[in-house]
Write a structure and sequence with these properties.
The complex is a heterodimer of chains A (188) and B (434).
Chain A (H helix, E strand, L loop, with lengths): L1 H34 L6 E5 L9 H5 L7 E5 L35 E7 L2 E6 L9 H9 L4 E5 L11 H5 L5 E5 L13
Antiparallel strand pairs in A: 1-6, 2-5, 3-4
Chain B lengths: L3 H12 L33 H25 L2 H18 L6 H13 L7 H17 L2 H6 L1 H9 L8 H23 L5 H4 L4 H5 L4 H16 L3 H5 L2 H10 L18 H5 L5 E2 L7 H30 L2 H5 L3 H13 L8 H9 L3 H37 L9 E2 L15 H17 L1
Antiparallel strand pairs in B: 1-2
Classes of the chains: A alpha+beta (188), B mainly alpha (434).
Chain lengths: 188, 434
């Protein structure tokens, strides 16, 4: 009986020891995580300077309509009449007919400002993030149209499905305080 | 006008051939005479950090409540209510992300990647359930995990799984944990998130494949209790280990076991163990022999496992985007592929040298190769230890919930006659007070 008691004590001792080791391990991991540079909450964003507008953003987001949408850096825009983000390279007529626009949903609105300048704004409720206009603008224009993860829609998945499918490695985790990587004149 | 455009494009593209694809000022931004103000692009803010901390607080409170309900209140009904809350909050409201199961990968990636550090909320999501398990058993599984809860509500006609099959199937979970750790450590992929069968239901959108897998889990789960938790959940493996040494845990009877074995019918997870007698003499000798053999083949199993899994290292490393890219570039460089892919075109656009890419790939492949030996060794060790544990017998006098396996769901409480007696007494007391 005495021996049995002794046995129990040993087991309890081992158990407590292992428990303490576990706690120490958990504490150690916390410390390690804190010791690293970025401690803030992060969100996903794509770097427009790396993006090749392949069209994966439209299809790989877990949301039915992607959280990625087109953004316009107006300060970079040439306000061209013949906008290659707004019109296909070979349009039938120079108007907003569906056969003339690269945008499959007609999300780009064209407004006359003054001769010969037009302003192009994105209707985000229509934009599906396909990047067709981005490609057109980058090919022949100033590259002022670009894609961004819109954080009012993004679910911030632990592993972003688009990031996993991105061919150019444009996706990265950025601090939540600074959640956009916008193109602007100085960066261009 | 129509005929003009292609000509203009041609001229433009020739003139701009040497230009970079983006961001050159081909058309100077205009100075408006009308004084037109340039609009600014909008930047909707992400979810506030405060709300992320709120999630951690909710997780903590849910764990406290689960511990109380399992250990003190002993009420299956209230645990069920907590489960529904978890499905609604962590599942449908928070869309299942971030969860402690997936946070394993963030923790591992933090340790192995020089640049990545998991945010403190993610670290807490990973650690809190572990800490609670260390003290109170697997209360996280009982009522807080949305993945467990959604399976639990589907469990309608439980059938029992033979212990040998249960034990064998659980190897899948060890393999899944090992694989997830390896792939996260080498930066290949976060497979736990990628192949989460239930998150599609929470988000109400998923690929068809994952929806089918999720539906299969739920359908099987009508008969086999919580199949994902028992046979696949990588976090469950960690919780099992910690739960073995937990300070307090589920007790089926509130005071003494009368060995009626009623509780065994209650458990849909086969987690209730019968009392066992001491071994008879010849059994003991036989056990010793088997133990000797098991100990002898343990190193063989470890080496065999390591060798076996290291055969698949090439396949695993190809999950890494860099390795995949290097494969493609090699095909193009050696002339086996004539066209380019989006990825290879993007790579050539960066101006990085192919040698640099190959060198990076080699280091990733080396890391995955080394990791696959460790993973295989780990699996061999698990199988070996399983054999060894079969030769070890702990005498038990009562019906007990298995320390590791018990998910603290609380189904067995009501089945215990002693518990019914306790509840009757409680009712009497409150009635006499009232």
């Amino acid at each position: 009986m005495a021996e049995n008691n002794h046995d129990m004590n040993r087991r309890d001792f081992l158990k407590t020891g292992a428990g303490t080791a576990c706690l120490a391990g958990l504490g150690g991991l916390t410390w390690l995580a804190r010791g690293k540079k970025s401690k803030s909450h992060t969100v996903w964003q794509l770097d427009p300077h790396v993006c090749v507008s392949c069209g994966n953003c439209e299809n790989h987001c877990v949301l039915e309509i992607s959280a990625v949408k087109c953004v316009h850096a107006f300060a970079m825009c040439g306000y061209c009449n013949l906008c290659t983000g707004f019109l296909r390279p070979d349009p039938v007529t120079l108007d907003s007919g569906a056969e003339n626009e690269p945008c499959p949903t007609g999300a780009i609105k064209r407004t006359f400002i003054e001769d010969p300048y037009y302003e192009y704004t994105i209707d985000e409720s229509l934009c599906i993030g396909c990047g067709k206009c981005v490609k057109g603008c980058a090919a022949f224009g100033n590259g002022s149209l670009f894609l961004q993860v819109r954080h009012d829609r993004c679910l911030n998945c632990n592993e972003c499905s688009i990031a996993a499918a991105c061919p150019s490695g444009a996706y990265k985790r950025v601090p939540a305080e600074n959640p956009y990587l916008l193109k602007d004149v100085s960066h261009s | 006008m129509k005929t003009n455009l292609p000509v203009i494009y041609c001229l433009l593209s020739i003139a701009l051939m040497q230009g970079v694809a983006w961001g050159i000022e081909r058309f100077a931004p205009p100075d408006f005479e009308s004084g037109h103000q340039l609009p600014q692009p909008t930047t909707p803010e992400p979810r506030e950090s405060v709300l992320e901390y709120l999630d951690v607080v909710v997780l903590f409170l849910a764990l406290v409540l689960a511990s109380y309900l399992v250990l003190k209140r002993r009420s299956r009904k209230l645990i069920f209510v907590l489960m529904i809350f978890s499905i609604v909050y962590f599942g449908f409201w928070r869309k299942g992300c971030i969860c402690p199961i997936g946070a394993i990968q963030n923790a591992v990636f933090t340790v192995f990647d020089a640049d990545y550090a998991a945010s403190i909320t993610v670290v807490l999501f990973f650690l809190l359930p572990l800490a609670f398990t260390l003290f109170f058993g697997r209360v996280f599984c009982a009522g807080v995990c949305p993945l467990g809860a959604i399976q639990d509500v589907f469990l309608l006609k439980p059938i029992s799984v033979p212990p040998w099959l249960e034990s064998a199937l659980r190897l899948l979970a060890y393999a899944y944990l090992g694989l997830a750790v390896l792939l996260a450590a080498t930066g290949c992929a976060f497979v736990i998130c990628r192949y989460d069968p239930f998150i599609g239901f929470f988000r109400m959108s998923a690929t068809l494949n994952m929806l089918i897998v999720g539906a299969c889990f739920l359908l099987v789960g009508i008969f086999v209790g919580r199949p994902y938790c028992r046979f696949f959940c990588p976090y469950g493996i960690i919780l099992r280990l910690i739960s073995r040494i937990s300070r307090w845990r589920v007790t089926i009877t509130p005071d003494e076991c009368i060995k009626c074995r009623l509780c065994q019918d209650a458990c849909p997870f086969g987690a209730i163990e019968e009392p066992t007698a001491e071994w008879a003499g010849q059994d003991y000798d036989k056990g010793k022999k088997i133990l000797a053999i098991a100990l002898g083949i343990l190193p063989v199993l470890i080496l065999l496992g390591g060798w076996g899994v290291s055969r698949t290292a090439g396949k695993m490393s190809r999950m890494h985007p860099t390795v995949k890219l290097a494969d493609r570039i090699y095909l193009e460089e050696s002339g086996q592929a004539k066209d380019t892919t989006d990825a290879s075109a993007a790579f050539r656009g960066t101006g990085r040298s192919v040698e640099e890419l190959y060198a990076e790939t080699a280091s990733i492949q080396f890391a995955v190769g080394r990791g696959s030996w460790i993973l295989g060794g780990f699996l061999g060790l698990v199988i070996g230890l399983k054999l060894i544990m079969h030769c070890v017998r702990r005498p038990r006098t009562d019906y007990q919930a298995d320390k590791a396996q018990c998910l603290a769901c609380g189904r067995c409480f009501k089945y215990c006659p002693r518990e019914r007696l306790r509840l009757a007494k409680l009712r009497e007391q409150t009635a006499s007070k009232g």
